[in-house]
C-alpha cells in the first residue's frame, strides 16, 4: 500500500525549496522520495532552469577564431580545452549572433533558454542520417554566409543533403536552428507510422468511393485525379503504391477487403514482378491473411492457431513444428525426425490438429515457408482453414513467435533437434502449458483450454473459474 504523504512533509519540502536547495535535497530533508518531490515541482510549474556553462571570454574568443578559420567544431572544442557540452553550447550561441562579437555573445549567453543545460551526444557515428554535430556545422556555415557547396565540404556530405536539410528544417523566419532541426528529424524517424489510408477521413473515403464507384478508377487514376480536384489541399494526396498496399497488405492496410474486387484483375494478392533468373517461391493456392475473418485478429473465439518451425543446427537439418492457440496460448509440438519438407510437416501437424475438438479447429495461420506447400491437404485432412501471413511480417503471428522464444529455453539454437523423442517433446509442451499466464488471470494454458471446453478444473480444492474477459469466449466455444 502506498504511503500517504503528510501536510507537514509538504510544508518542509517547500520551505527548503524557498531557500534555493535542489529537488533532491528538499525531498531528503522532507523525508520523501526525489521522484515525489520532482512530481510536486512539475505540478506547481516552478522548476528552476538548469545551470548554464560558465562564460570564459578568452576561451570563447579562441573558439571563435578557430571556427572562422574553418576548423571543424569538434576539433576546435578539443583545442580550446573545454567539454563537448560547453564547447558546442558556445558554438551554438555564436551561430545565433551574426555579428559574432565575443562581448555581445558574453552578455547574451545566459538569456536564451533553447540550449542551456542540454546534454546530447555530439559524437554520433556517421551514417545516412545527419548527426547533431553535422547540423551544428550547417548552422555555423549558414550564419557565416557560406555557400551550400562550402558547407557540404566541411561535413563531407553532398550539396543536395545540405539543401534538403535547410529547406526542411528552417523556421518560418528563415533561420536554421540545429536543436529544432534535430528534434524534428527525431520525430519524423519514429516508427511504426500509421498507414495513410488506415486512418478514417476524407482521403480514405474518396479513394474507396472511386475504387468501387460507377467508373471503377484505378489507383493511378485516383492519384492524379486528386491533384485536379483538390489543387490547394495538400492533405488530399496519396500515391498509387499506397493504395495498392492498403488493399493487399494487411500490415499497411486500411481499405475493406471487398474493395479489392474492384480492381481490373480481381486478384486477392499481389502478383510479384520477378525476373527470369529469380526463383519462383510462391505457394500455389494459398489464402492470404487479409481474407482471414476479423474475429481471429480480435481473439473473439477460441480455436484459431498459429504455426511455425523451430530449426535446429544447419548440419543436422532438424526441426520441430510448433502450434499455438491464440486465446489460451495452448501449445503443441510436432515431431520431425528426419527433415522438414512439406510432406513431413503435413504428417506431423495433421494428427495434432485432428485430435482437437471440432470447435477448436477454426483456422491455422502460417508464414510463407515452403514447408507448407501441402497446405491444401492439411486443410482437408484436419478440417481447418489455412491462411498465410504477409512476407516478412512476424508480428502477424506474434503469439507463435513469442512462444517459440519460450521454447528455445528447452530447444536451444544450434543443437540437433532430432535427438528429442516424441515423448520428450510432449513433456516440453506440457511444461509450457503448465506455466501460469497473466493474460489468463494466472491460469495455465492447460487449465484455460479445459475451462473453455466446459470441463471442471479444481485448483486449491475449489472449482476454478475463467477471468471475466474470457467467459464470453468460453460460451462461444461450447455453443458456437
Describe this structure in words.
This protein has 21 helices and seven strands. The protein is α/β, with parallel strands linked by helices. The protein has four domains: 38 residues; 127 residues, no CATH class; 67 residues, no CATH class; 129 residues, 2-Layer Sandwich (Nucleotidyltransferase, domain 5). It has a five-stranded mixed beta sheet. Helix 4 packs antiparallel against helix 5, helix 5 crosses helix 6 and helix 8 packs antiparallel against helix 11.
What is shown here, in short?
The protein has helices at 7-18, 23-30, 34-44, 57-68, 73-80, 84-96, 102-108, 132-143, 148-155, 159-169, 178-189, 202-212, 219-229, 240-248, 294-297, 342-354, 375-382, 398-407, 422-433, 445-452, 471-478, and strands at residues 304-311, 319-325, 331-336, 363-366, 385-388, 458-459, 462-463.
Give the helix/strand layout.
Elements: H1 7-18, H2 23-30, H3 34-44, H4 57-68, H5 73-80, H6 84-96, H7 102-108, H8 132-143, H9 148-155, H10 159-169, H11 178-189, H12 202-212, H13 219-229, H14 240-248, H15 294-297, E1 304-311, E2 319-325, E3 331-336, H16 342-354, E4 363-366, H17 375-382, E5 385-388, H18 398-407, H19 422-433, H20 445-452, E6 458-459, E7 462-463, H21 471-478
Parallel strand pairs: 1-4, 4-5
Antiparallel strand pairs: 1-2, 2-3, 6-7
Helix pairs in contact: 1-2, 2-3, 4-5, 4-6, 5-6, 6-8, 8-9, 8-11, 9-10, 13-14, 16-17
Number of helices: 21
Q: What is the fold-level CATH name, i.e. the topology of the largest domain? A: Nucleotidyltransferase, domain 5
**What is the C-level CATH assignment of the largest domain?**
Alpha Beta
Cα-atom Rg, whole angstroms? 32 Å
Strand content: 5-15%
Helix content: 40-55%
- Global shape: extended
Order of helices and strands: HHHHHHHHHHHHHHHEEEHEHEHHHEEH
**End-to-end C-alpha gap:** 43 Å
Number of separate domains: 4
Structural class: alpha/beta
Mean pLDDT: 78
Largest sheet: 5 strands, mixed
Task: Give the name of the CATH superfamily of the largest domain.
Answer: Ribonuclease H-like superfamily/Ribonuclease H
Spatial arrangement of strands, main beta sheet: 3-2-1-4-5
Indicate the CATH architecture of the largest domain: 2-Layer Sandwich
Number of strands: 7
User: Which regions contain 5 or more consecutive residues with pLDDT less than 50?
Assistant: 97-126, 276-280
Amino acid at each position: 500500500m502506498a504511503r500517504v504523504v503528510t501536510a507537514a512533509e509538504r510544508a518542509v519540502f517547500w520551505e527548503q525549496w524557498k531557500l534555493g536547495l535542489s529537488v533532491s535535497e528538499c525531498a531528503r530533508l522532507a523525508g520523501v522520495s526525489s521522484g515525489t518531490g520532482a512530481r510536486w515541482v512539475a505540478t506547481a510549474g516552478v522548476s528552476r532552469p538548469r545551470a548554464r556553462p560558465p562564460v570564459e571570454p578568452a576561451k570563447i574568443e579562441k573558439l571563435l577564431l578557430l571556427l572562422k578559420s574553418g576548423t571543424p567544431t569538434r576539433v576546435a572544442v578539443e583545442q580550446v580545452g573545454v567539454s563537448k557540452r560547453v564547447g558546442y553550447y558556445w558554438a551554438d550561441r555564436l551561430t545565433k549572433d551574426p555579428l559574432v562579437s565575443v562581448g555581445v555573445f558574453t552578455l547574451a549567453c545566459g538569456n536564451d533558454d533553447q540550449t542551456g543545460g542540454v546534454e546530447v551526444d555530439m559524437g554520433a557515428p556517421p551514417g545516412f542520417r545527419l548527426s547533431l554535430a553535422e547540423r551544428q556545422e550547417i548552422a555555423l556555415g549558414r550564419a557565416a554566409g557560406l555557400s551550400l557547396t562550402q558547407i557540404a565540404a566541411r561535413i563531407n556530405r553532398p550539396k543536395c543533403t545540405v539543401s534538403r536539410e535547410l529547406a526542411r528544417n528552417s523556421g518560418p523566419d528563415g533561420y536554421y536552428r540545429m536543436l529544432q532541426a534535430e528534434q524534428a528529424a527525431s520525430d519524423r524517424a519514429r516508427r511504426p507510422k500509421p498507414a495513410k489510408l488506415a486512418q478514417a477521413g476524407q482521403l480514405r473515403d474518396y479513394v474507396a468511393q472511386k475504387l468501387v464507384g460507377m467508373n471503377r478508377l484505378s489507383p493511378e487514376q485516383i492519384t492524379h485525379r486528386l491533384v485536379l480536384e483538390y489543387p490547394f489541399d495538400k492533405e488530399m494526396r496519396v500515391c498509387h503504391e499506397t493504395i495498392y498496399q492498403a488493399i493487399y497488405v494487411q500490415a499497411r492496410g486500411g481499405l475493406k477487403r471487398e474493395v479489392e474486387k474492384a480492381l481490373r484483375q480481381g486478384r486477392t494478392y499481389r502478383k510479384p514482378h520477378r525476373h527470369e533468373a529469380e526463383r519462383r517461391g510462391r505457394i500455389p493456392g494459398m489464402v492470404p491473411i487479409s481474407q482471414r475473418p476479423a474475429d481471429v485478429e480480435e481473439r473473439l473465439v477460441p480455436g484459431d492457431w498459429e504455426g511455425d518451425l523451430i530449426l535446429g543446427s544447419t548440419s543436422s537439418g532438424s526441426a520441430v513444428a510448433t502450434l499455438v492457440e491464440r486465446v489460451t496460448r495452448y501449445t503443441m509440438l510436432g515431431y520431425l525426425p528426419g527433415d522438414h519438407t512439406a510432406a513431413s510437416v503435413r504428417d506431423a501437424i495433421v494428427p495434432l490438429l485432428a485430435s482437437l475438438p471440432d470447435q477448436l479447429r477454426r483456422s491455422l495461420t502460417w508464414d510463407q515457408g515452403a514447408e507448407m506447400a501441402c497446405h491444401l491437404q492439411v486443410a482437408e485432412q484436419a478440417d481447418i482453414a489455412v491462411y498465410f501471413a504477409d512476407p516478412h511480417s512476424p508480428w502477424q503471428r506474434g503469439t507463435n513467435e513469442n512462444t517459440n522464444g519460450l521454447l528455445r529455453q528447452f530447444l536451444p539454437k544450434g543443437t540437433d533437434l532430432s535427438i528429442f523423442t516424441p515423448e520428450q517433446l510432449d513433456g516440453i509442451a506440457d511444461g509450457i502449458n503448465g506455466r501460469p499466464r497473466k493474460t489468463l488471470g494466472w491460469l495455465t494454458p492447460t487449465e484455460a483450454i479445459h475451462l473453455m471446453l466446459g470441463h471442471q478444473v479444481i485448483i486449491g480444492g475449489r472449482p476454478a473459474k475463467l477471468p471475466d474477459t474470457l467467459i464470453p469466449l468460453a460460451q462461444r466455444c461450447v455453443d458456437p
